[in-house]
Amino acid sequence: MMKYLKILSLLSIVALQSCLAADEEPVAVAPLTGSVVDVAVGGPTEPNQVWIDLSDYKNAATNTRTSWDLGFYTGDAFRVVINGSIAMTVAKIPNATDINLVKESDVTALKTEAQVGTFSAANMQYVDNPNGSFLTQTTGIAAIKENDAENPIYLVNLGRDLPSSNNIGAGSVSLSGAARGWKKIQILRSQNGYKIRYADVAATTYQEYLITKDTEYNFSYFNLKTGAPVKVQPKKKKWDLAFTTFTNEVFSAPTTSAGSYFYADFIVTNTLDGVGVYQVSAGGNLEQAYNAFKLSDVDQSKFIFNDQRALGDKWRTTTGTPDIPQPFVYSDRFFVLKDTEGFYFKLRFNAMKDKNGNRGYSNFEFDPL
Predict the structure, then answer these.
(1) Contact in structure between 186 and 142 (CB atoms under 8 Å)
(2) What residue stretch is flagged as signal peptide (predicted)?
(3) Fewer CB within a 10 Å sphere, N or C end of the chain?
(4) Structure-derived torsion over alpha carbons of residues 260, 181, 107, 126, reported in degrees to the nearest 10
(5) What is the pLDDT of residues 141-198, one digit of tens each?
(6) Can you spell out the DSSP letters for 241-305?
(7) CA-to-CA distance for 336 and 366, rounded, in angstroms?
(8) Which sign does the torsion angle of CA 323, 117, 307, 132 carry?
(9) What global pTM score does this model have?
(10) In sequence order, what are the residues at sequence separation of 6 or more whose Cβ sits closer than 8 angstroms to the Cβ of residue 91?
């Protein structure tokens, strides 16, 4: 009888597995052991954005950061983000109602204002909210309205190309090549997504493209130069943290904004899908503090779920210190991360340079808790 029950149980499992659709994805399972990860940032021009799921870290997704310009949200709201990894900006063109009639003289003044790194607090209006709260932001591109006539025409600064040479001095980065130019755009709603009208500033006719909301992803991405969609982020809940260059807000004093500024060696977390992070002080012995930290030590009250910069630049210094003038990774801290599936990990960062001192070669290790 017992042998019969075992056979029946085995047949039931086989039958259940055979009922799964061929394209059905398995449930994410946290790794049983941690690992050390080399991140393919690409050297001192930092050409790549790298999206990492700690439960599947060997299959990190990578894209060239110039591969996209606009990200169209696929949820219920109609919001559009710009590519902060190439220092893009966007500005509403005053009194413009017909994209075909906008000409160079209408935007001359805007071109000097809609720039990253001017050390003016006013330029924050031209970029997305750095904390990632694009659904409620009052900067960048406004929510897309149902009434076409209510949707403004924007001047888009396409940011900067990648530098032509990766031969940069040790300890330094070179993030910005030639200017990628300007476009004028207007974004409308369509039946299952968005309609974008875009053209060169001096053009008297526009091009149009329909962008469908693919709800497997958080954003549908579009390249204004090629006029084509592009895949960037992995599917929802399939990434936890991303290494990228980043447009952040910089301060000249603790409460005095100096506007938008372009950062190297930055990490964003997937707050849209529930990733939270907090920093743990290691005191004077990182190895001991990191190894001793266990699941029961996790402090739920410290997780930051509402700011994608929770890890951000807190893992390294790009200016060094009087004792160590070169950029380096902090050795007095590590981080705790709760991923999209609710698993907990501890992370420590080991490097941001290769053995020759070249930037853009990040390395970290993690362990599940």
Answers:
(1) no
(2) 1-21
(3) N
(4) -20
(5) 999 999 999 999 999 999 999 998 877 888 889 899 999 999 999 999 998 999 999 9
(6) EEEEEEEEEEEEETTEEEEEEEEEEEEEE-GGGT-EEEEEE-TT-HHHHHHH--GGG--GGG-B-
(7) 9
(8) negative
(9) 0.90
(10) 110, 113, 114, 125, 126, 154, 155, 157
Note the maximum CA span of the chain. 89
The rounded mean pLDDT for the chain is 91
Q: b or e along 281-298 (b: 16 or more beta carbons within 10 Å of the residue's beta carbon)? A: ebeeebeebbeebeeeeb
φ and ψ of 310, to 5 deg: -55, -35
**In this predicted structure, what is the pLDDT of residue 25?**
47
Helices (H), the chain: 2-18, 104-113, 286-292
Beta-bridge partners for 179: 160
CA triple 78-80-86, angle to 5 deg: 170
- Of 269, 341, 271, which Cα lies nearest the Cα of 27? 341
H-helix segments, 103-196: 104-113
Q: Which candidate, 212, 207, 213, 202, places its Cα nearest to that of 227?
A: 207
CA distances from 86 to 94, 178, 257 (A): 25, 11, 21
Closest CA to 158 of 186, 184, 125: 184
| 85 contact partners, CB below 8 Å, separation of at least 6 | 49, 65, 244, 245, 246, 247
Query: Taking a C-beta distance cutoff of 8 angstroms, is the pair 222, 72 a contact?
Result: yes
Look at the block and give the residue holding tokens 């549908």. 220
HSE-up (13 A, CA, CB side) for residue 212: 3
Q: Which two tokens stand for residue 9?
A: 């149980």
Residue 364 has a pLDDT of 97
Quick one: tokens of 228? 């084509």
The helix (run of H) or strand (run of E) holding residue 189 is: strand 182-190
According to DSSP, residue 221 is labeled E
At 325 the three-state DSSP class reads coil
Place 20 in a pLDDT band, splitting at 50, 70 and 90.
Answer: very low
What six digits make up the tokens of 66? 């110039």
CB 217 within 8 A of CB 30: no
